[in-house]
Amino acid sequence: MKPKLITRFALAVAFLGVCAPMFAHHGNSQYDEKHPVTITGTVTEFVWQNPHCQIYIDVKDKDGKLVHWGIESMSPGVMLREGWNPSMLSPGDVVSVTLIAAKNGAPVGYAGNACSKQCKVVRANGETLPLFREEE
Questions:
Q1: Can you state the percent helix, strand and coil of the chain, rounding each to 5?
Q2: Which of 41, 45, 94, 120 lies at a CB distance of 3.0 to 4.6 Å from 56, suitable for a disulfide?
Q3: Distance CA 68, CA 79 (A)
Q4: How many CB atoms lie within 10 A of CB 61?
Q5: Residues 6 or more apart from 13 whose CB is under 8 A from it?
């Protein structure tokens, strides 16, 4: 009886050890959700892949230095429901992105439904590609 109990306990501990990092994945504590920012730059890559789509853009900072930004968005399935598709953004497109930036000043951010109506992508021609759909 004792070996079965030890085996079950060991399996439970192993299961929790493997699954615990999944809960940490969706924490947003590293982002400054109270102060969204808008950056403008040139798309270098748009990655349409699980678990989250990624938008990479080159932005000139206030000193004219080129900064490479990485922006995490929603999953491809959610993006499809929001009206996006894999060819929405192409390298060379100039866009303005309103996002939730990292608190530590790193050029990374989140743009998706966690930042509600504030997050969006705007093309150079003024077309808005929302990352949040109003309830109908």
A1: 25, 35, 40
A2: 45
A3: 23
A4: 10
A5: none
Measured CA to CA in angstroms, residue 89 lies from 11, 16, 73, 109, 124 at distances of 45, 39, 13, 17, 12
Domain coordinates in residue numbering, the chain: 37-130
Q: Name the residue with higher pLDDT: 5 or 72.
A: 72
Percent of the chain clearing pLDDT 70 (strictly above): 76
The average confidence (pLDDT) of the chain is: 83
Q: Which amino acid is at 22?
A: M
Q: How many CB atoms are closer than 10 A to CB 133?
A: 12
Each residue of 51-96: pLDDT tens digit?
A: 999 999 999 999 999 999 999 998 999 889 888 999 999 999 999 9
Distance CA 89, CA 97 (A): 12
Q: Domain 37-130 adopts which CATH fold?
A: OB fold (Dihydrolipoamide Acetyltransferase, E2P) (2.40.50)
Extract the tokens encoding 70. Answer: 């990485």
127 has a pLDDT exceeding 90: yes
**Chain-centre distance of CA 71, in angstroms?**
5
